[in-house]
Records
---
Amino acid sequence: MLDIDIEKKLQAIDRALIELSPHEEECHLCPRECGVNRRKGEKGFCKTGVQAIISHAGLHFGEEPILSGYTDFLKNKHNQAEVQRGSGTIFFAGCNLKCLYCQNYQISWQQLGQSVSSEKLASEMLKLQAHGAWNINLVSPTHMILPILKALKTAYEQGLKLPVVYNSGGYEKAEIIKHLDGIIDIYLPDFKYFSCTLSKKLSHSPDYFQYASTAIKQMYYQLPSVILNNDGVAQKGLIIRHLLIPGNSSDSTKILEWIAQNLSTSIYLSIMSQYHPCFQAPPEIQMTVSPKEYKKVVAKAQNLGFDTLFIQPEPFARDEHLIPDFTQKKPFKWN
């Protein structure tokens, strides 16, 4: 017999599938508004059909500590960890944003991966649970939400009990996010750009801030507070990520100001310095983020009064785990 929380999730999934399934025939799931018939094999901006394409599924130890495992993080820091459980990441091929500098370009642009049924996707979720994952972390789920919902329904019916993380680029439609209320446990959006000029140049999306800001407001409405378990691992809530782009710290500070003014300084905020010039990054950002500009943005967040910040104070090398190689069976290099 299923417990009450799982029954509620299954009911929410059924409602969402009823509302969202028409997008398989005329897709308007994201701001691209392609309108393609995915059931007939038509491809829009994301270049995907009705089945999910999995590029990689595995335990991930490099997310924020409250996702990858805070207790594991502390033990590993003192060389006491026996087993690190990690975040149960599932990376999906294709993307509705396709940033020119994407470090995951092999899957977002080149679409390395395997097309799978919803049943197979559900089995991957259950496998991650069996391997000790703290959560099911759906990476780039926006364009794959229908097969994901079908898989979640099967997985819950077969015993899935982990929190589900919606790990997206932030280029979402709030009306679609509304249908995920009661299904998603943790929202993990990137909040990339304030400037429409910058978002147009780097992600072909001059309307990025318009859509991301309204979608994140909806996420905050659904899950305003982060709830941790006894191990310090998130079970519910919203964590906003922001990746600094070299030479654009002023855009970053505008993002922080907007969050403080329109949401709350109690928001869990992850300020990332891990940018590396990848793929088609234009010449003006063919560099890493300088320590000076990163410290400036972190100081701004502190001055605005944000309660919880995740920071990356040290520069990262190209051979570290944050630059994966999805041509390999194990794309991440874990130390």
---
Amino acid sequence: MTESGNWRHGGHLRQLAITAGLNPEALLDFSANINPLGPPEWLRSRISGSISSLVHYPDPEGQALIDAACRRYSVNAEEVLIGNGSTELFYLLPQALEVRHALIPVPSYVDYATAAGIAGLTIHTLPLAAGNGFCLDFEALETALKELRDTPVMVPLGQPNNPTGRSFDARRLRHLARRFPKATFVVDEAFADFVENFDSLTVNRPANVVVMLSLTKIFAIPGLRLGVAVAAPSTVRKVKSLQPPWSVNTIAQRVGEAALLDTAYTQQTRAAVSTLREELRCHLEQVPFLTVFPGEANFLLVRCDRTSLDARTLAGRLLKRGLAIRVCDNFDGLDERFFRVAVRTEPENRKLVEALSQELFMAPLVKTRRHTPAIMFQGTSSNAGKSVLAAALCRIMLQDGYRVAPFKAQNMSLNSFVTRDGGEMGRAQVVQAQAARLDPDVRMNPILLKPNSDTGSQVVLCGKPIGNMKVMDYFRYKSEAFERVKESYDDLAADHDAIVLEGAGSPAEVNLKAHDIVNMKMALFAQAPVLLVGDIDRGGVFASFVGSMEVLSERERAQIAGFVVNRFRGQPDLLKDALDYTLQHTGRPILGVVPYLKDLGLPEEDSVGFKEGLFDDARPAEDAVDIAVLDLPHISNFTDLEPLRLEPDVRLRTVRRIQDLGHPDAVILPGSKNVIGDLTFLRAVGFDRSLENLAAESRCEIIGICGGYQILGRSISDPHGIESPGTDLVGLELLPVDTVLEEDKTLIRTEARHRISGIKLHGYEIHHGQSRADQLPPALIGSDGNGLGACRGDGLVWGSYLHGLFDADAFRRWFIDRLRQRKGLRPVGKVQTRYDLEPAFERLADTVRQSLDIPAIYRLMGLR
């Protein structure tokens, strides 16, 4: 890993990787001091927007860029010089200055000496002491300047220094510069943006100080080549006279203008790098035989003190592991023991520390997470079909012999489920667990958000509700919540061969990305390649693929492994041109075209399908019983009704307006996440009177499930402000039931029997309400013999807290047949449809296996 003065990183490193038999693209490069966060998100659009300008020559003066530099550094335009990287300016400066000597503290950036040598300067070095952490010795520097007897001299100084990462006291340098006016101090602030509380020499700059600034390190764009110098106007003019015309191209100028104004990204990077650097330093210091020198930039200088192992040999061993470090034996003042490592992301830093520990024959000193192969489905939008595809892949992998589990960091849904141990989780992950033939586990969905207003939700963490939060309150809580998410993921992943993750919404939602814990942040933590799913049935799917890639950061874009076109109606061959275009434009393949799958027989992911009329049935009501479901604004657990959709003699329809209610055979009030709000809604639109009339006619059966059961009652009280500011409301008064919303939430699995039919039922309860019924028979009898729910004497108005009561095939048929008899139809007398998801999972897996490139997905996961 040798570097010379004219060494250029990319080609040399690529050749080393090829020589070692490695894929250069897969190499973790700790030798390049580039921002670990990657380029800012605006970079791609800035470059794209500059393409039309390439038909013109660039502005030879770069005036717009200079103006931006003036605003950023509070200097005058005649003090600013732009160049093709700060390296170009370094090579021109010694030729422009009227100096004969260069005094260079060492170790330092090798091009300082190279540029001075090309200009014919006599080079004097000032060794920095390892025992002093390679800090700049101002007394020694002053002594060396005095020995030159006021001879004009150039003094290049890294601030912070490369490769040591140490900064000096800027105030002392200002004082020293004024005392030695014939010396020109060239202060290289290429890595200054990584230093917290940095004191730039562009401020209160003495006339004999030249400040070199690089925009490529902090913005991770070294290939763009852009540097800025701030100096005395006379120095700027001299250097400019030596500079070739059009030194800085149009794209570099445009990017530079934006970069100089983007202080937010600089602050974000500085904070992130500071944390990553300190963590890396602490871990490296635990490895015996390594001495880590304190640094303030985005890299650390390390010395290998093991007598039988020098840095070059160590670098060769690490390269075989796919890790590149920077050997520093060509830096004046350093020997074969020294190497430099860049600060990269947390998982990458862990790999480096583990590899160093192993190469030094040590047991791992850093607890390393076991990496479980993983893949993640994200979408170009909500309801793109991610959940169904995740369930399909879970079943496919199960068929192929893998112990696979689903995972979604955060789910926003009113459709929840209670696990065997009393934890609450989203139904989508329950279905995916069933596809993998696993018991639902709250680790699969550690955060569940249940909206109870337009601006707030109940937050369920690891299966237990922790309270209601407004949006901004939850944003502040997210960092803490994500720690629990990571713990849940690691714990779940350790028990399985593979994990299928699901994102939420879209990773391209720029208004939410800063607070993301469910899409790219989770993919990066899980080291999961991402398949971006688009719904072609909505239209614009290829624009969505390309547009999503455009707004992702480089780091996020690298995580995208391919695309999936979902819900396609037609011949896939017709898409060939579009697939080729997408590959050419994004560099990512389409890994599958999944057909539109109607009537899957699986529960819906969320209430989108319900709200869009998915439950509405157009079959004639004469040959079927007519069941109306009230579309409550805060409907929850609407999947209680899924089994009824499958029955051939049931017309299930969603009712939103009072004029659409008609004269159904049954009305179901489903669960609600805000019974106070939904009860208010029903009264406001007049449903209360309509239901009262239907109940009085004694022909229509009215059923309330959970929140719907509470609404049917006499009163609802919210003394603790669970869903309101402490409201008490009169219910629909169809049942003499009084409910109090308590702070503690009931989360239990329940077994019972229907009192009238005697048929066994099982399901779960999720509710804050505690209800008391006056002198009414119960609707159900629990396994302990206690009554559950309430039922009017004639059995036509009843309700309970039991979710899943219609899942029981025998009870569902009994219920429908009773409606048929009341309507004058002959009862069927035997089960017509079995609510069994297994055939649906198998059909789904067969179709998706034929549509997706499963071998390619397994290769992405590292399984084959």
---
Amino acid sequence: MYIEKAAYKSLEISKIIKLIARRCRSETGALVAEHIAPAGDLEELRRRQSLYNDVERYRGVKGELPWVNGLVSVAFMLETAEENGLLSGEELVKVRLLLTLSGRMREALTEAREEYPAFSILLRSMRDFSEESEMLSVIDDDGHLYDYASEKLSGLRARMRVLKESVRRKAHALLNSPSIAQMLQERVLTLRSGRHAFLVRQDALSQFPGSVIDRSGSGSSVYMEPHSLMALNNEYSKLYGEEMLEETRIFRQFTAALMNRKKGILDTENVLGTIDLFYALSEMTRLEKWRMAELSKRSEFSFVRARHPLLRENPVPIDIRCGGDFRILVITGPNTGGKTVALKTAGVCLYLGWLGFPIPAGEGSLLGDIGELFTDIGDEQSIEQSLSTFSAHITHVTEILKNVTPRSVVMLDELGAGTDPEEGAALGVALLDWLRGEGAMVLATTHHNPIKRFALTTEGIETASVEFDASTLSPTYRILIGIPGRSNALLIAGKLGMPERIVKRAASAISGQEISMEDLIGELHEKRAALEREAREVEQSRMKLERLEKDYEAKIKAIEEKRDALIASADKKALSIVRNAEDSARALIRNMSNAEAESQARRELEKKRSHFQKIEKSAVKREEKKEMAESVAATKYELKAGDTVQLLGTNKSATVTAVEGGKARVQAGAVELQVPLTKLKVITRKAPAPAPSVQIKVSRPVGVPSSIMVRGMTIDEAMPMVEQYLDQAYCAGYDSVTVIHGRGQGILRREVQELCKRLPYVLDHNLGGPGEGGYGVTVVRFRR
């Protein structure tokens, strides 16, 4: 979708993008947000939505994708390095951080690609940078090379350490000399430009046995090199220079290797920025209730409960649509009623939707195939070009008309304003009629009654109004499609104290046709208000009936359950009595001494037994009927593999492995059975692939990063945060996370590791490896 510059500016898109960018965790995400362009066509838009939805589903099911704090854009660094051929140590550390995260991200996306197919879009732009990450592992977190970066560097630094020890011993002897010590500003040996020196007081400059090599910042003291250290300093300075040259050579070598893969690195940065942007959009979805619009192949849009993102204080949601049963919507109503805000809200939703973003609207919003977005909103007056407001508007609208297509959306604010009302209205009518012929979608606002009449009587054009409360003289900001609005100018003037004679004189000056138009609109509003009251009453009655129906069903169910319980209890008692009677009869028969009497008694018992069996069968049938009503077959539930079921008549549960016709194969412990569906009751249904919004709110914590920074905090500040973070990260499904505590004296590190030992869900914890932060971080792995 194309958006003209004037539309981008008048809709204040840059402010809204900054609003989203503030939710990003890194500079890379903010840069992607600022530079992303609308999708070129509907197919590309579908791919963008699919990618966002897959990332959201992943976060809901498996937790956050890998991430690190401190990620910055390296694009400008690489551009500069292309000119001078050198990246500094600090810059190389930033590149290494990006490449290390890239490796982890690529691994996570690859593992999940089958389940989340849209991840392939990201993976196409990601490369393997394991060699480059390994190459940069010889640099510490501060950008300094380790000794083992090269054999030459290792040898130079070893010789420098020997020399430094010699210098230290001689300097210590000088510091112990009373005559020398009293000349010093500080009793400290300092390295200045590769030479060891003392900071000497200004008044002792001529007495100190040495040479001036530098001055302090304040100018009150000087750095002087003792004569006794000069030979050692010369040798040290030579080695220091060689060390700098060797470090520069290594940095240039690393820079050249990275520049060979510049495009791949920039592509990877864009992927990481996109994922960070999706995180920000997810936060907007969670906190601001933004929702992804459904797509339509038709040229149309319909936004439900849309809000302008820049209206922070309880904005009134509006429903606005165009392109379905009408192509042009003319919105009328009083000033400050919300007409312009309605246009801007629709424009913002269109633009964000075509970026592939969730939009500030509710569920059920629809976004169609839009080719261009043009707006003429606000004051276009130009002093430099000597254009009046009206002339500027006409010039801009003329440019719009040259580029309009049937897939265009054109927004015109205050149509026909800025000139003679009669001519302005005529021009507005002609403009709408021309756009109608071109098939473009148009949202226009106006005060002119001729334009309202044209909209009311012309096919393909619909009217709408911003609702106005006459009793409070204030707008409600609701959009009422199908009813034109009144200007309410005379009503407002009268309510605000304008003399009645003046108001009546103004009313008499309006032509009869205009009065009848206003009266017609007023009558429509009154009828609408009456219909709304009736609709509210009907809705209240419907809700009352629903409550009564639910109460009735609940009472019927309670009665049935009570009846079933009474019958079950009676059956149980009857069976108990029957069995006791049968047992007693057998005992009496066994104790009879008369054979004939015993034979007669047995015959009578057999007669009664058939009656007992009928009672028992009746009870069993009732129980089976009750169980059958709860069975899978009776409830018509479509059983699936993974569902948990109960074997009716037992308290045993099992897991469904397969469904074949009217039977299911279930696993109960180590035993696999084939059971009819009439003998199974569903206990737990297999959870479907969860919707992102539900999972974000319920199943997983939202916004749990893969690391936490507590460097520089006290133990009392840091430890509660670390413990809470580890709880959240474990619940979010991470396999491992990183606690960044810094090196320092190791106090925080020890406390973090002691905490890890106490937590039952922590499997192990280790210090970070090369490229991960070394002694400054602890990597925590969870039990699974």
